[in-house]
Design brief:
Layout lengths: L1 H37 L1 H27 L1 H8 L8 H4 L4 H4 L11
Helix pairs in contact: 2-3
Length: 106
């Protein structure tokens, strides 16, 4: 009970302090975040991280397909079931084909 009251008190204090800062402060924080994201160094690091994630995904997919489970899944695939690729398809954010984020980039 005491924990719930402390949580609600913190929530109320955060709301009051946040509403006092207002829209102007929000816009300032948002523009700083946008500048950070557009920094070429940050973009380069994000590209490297995405390339590494794609590489790890591909390696994992290959290992799964060559494992006994992958072989079993591929041999039991019929018209009505999904293939191994369907089971382990990447999310849009890792494949590079997803929607654009707030900064207009992936």
């Amino acid at each position: 009970m005491r924990g719930k009251l402390l949580f609600l008190g913190g929530l109320a204090a955060g709301f009051v302090l946040g509403s006092r800062a207002g829209r102007e402060k929000y816009e300032e924080i948002r523009s700083q975040a946008e500048k950070f994201w557009q920094n070429p160094t940050v973009q380069e690091a994000a590209g490297v991280a995405q390339a590494q994630a794609n590489k790890l995904y591909t390696e994992g997919k290959d290992k799964l397909q060559s494992s006994k489970l992958g072989e079993k899944l591929s041999t039991t695939t019929t018209t009505g079931t999904t293939s191994t690729d369907d089971l382990i398809a990447p999310s849009d954010s890792l494949s590079g084909t997803g929607t654009k984020g707030p900064g207009g980039t992936l």
